[in-house]
UniProtKB/TrEMBL annotation:
Gene name, Swiss-Prot/TrEMBL: osmY_7
Source organism: mine drainage metagenome
This protein's UniProt keywords: Periplasm, Repeat, Signal
Entry protein name: Osmotically-inducible protein Y
Membrane-spanning parts: none
Organism lineage string: unclassified sequences, metagenomes, ecological metagenomes
InterPro entries per UniProt: BON_dom (IPR007055), Lipoprotein_DolP (IPR051686), Transpt-assoc_nodulatn_dom_bac (IPR014004)
Domain BON intervals: 36-103
Amino acid sequence: MKQLKYFAVLFMTVALLSSFGCASTATKESTGEYFDDSVVTTKVKDALFSESTLKSSEINVETYKGIVQLSGFVSSQANMDKAVEIASGVKGVQSVKNDMQKK
């Protein structure tokens, strides 16, 4: 009976410690957040690709905890503004950081 108690305590300890591996920290995303950010990135890229006035291949998209970063070189300020507007309208985007530069 004592062995069963020790085994149960050991099992619970291992289960608790392994759950910390999926938790997020200030500098690391949890597994769920990483998946959510991947979905947001894909949606933003799709929205940018669907806009015929933009060359979506010029714009790089990265997402971290719902904050989308746009980078790359675009041909005009109007294209920058349009890309930020499109990215801001995507569901799941908390804010957009514009690191794009004009050619």
